[in-house]
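Tokens for chain A. Residues wanted.
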């Protein structure tokens, strides 16, 4: 079974999101605090462990089922999931976590994913 871990969501919209620093064995990077709500706008979520189109399709379809999510897409080139929250809406992180768990059950490839 896939294990999805919703780590920390970037605390700012995609347009102003800071670049991720490279991680080394000697100094593990600290993830930003988990944001309980994503407000309207565009968000970039870093995804690790995505292996194939079936994985991304399950995650994207799951996120699109969450109320308030207008768009979701994954870009293999930059490794980010792009999410748009509807105007005047908010999305609870807990709902995204649930969508990830459901996507994990649907795909069932025994991969380990992280989302931050």
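Reply:
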């Amino acid at each position: 079974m896939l294990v999805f871990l919703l780590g920390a969501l970037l605390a700012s919209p995609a347009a102003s999101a800071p670049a991720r620093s490279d991680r080394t064995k000697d100094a593990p990077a600290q993830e930003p605090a988990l944001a309980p709500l994503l407000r309207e706008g565009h968000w970039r979520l870093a995804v690790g462990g995505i292996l194939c189109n079936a994985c991304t399709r399950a995650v994207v379809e799951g996120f699109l089922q969450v109320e308030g999510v207008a768009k979701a897409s994954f870009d293999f080139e930059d490794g980010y999931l792009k999410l748009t929250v509807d105007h005047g809406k908010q999305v609870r992180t807990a709902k995204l976590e649930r969508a990830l768990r459901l996507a994990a059950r649907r795909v069932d490839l025994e991969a380990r994913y992280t989302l931050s």
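The chain has a mean pLDDT of 74. The beta strands are 3-6, 37-48, 69-75, 80-92, 112-115.
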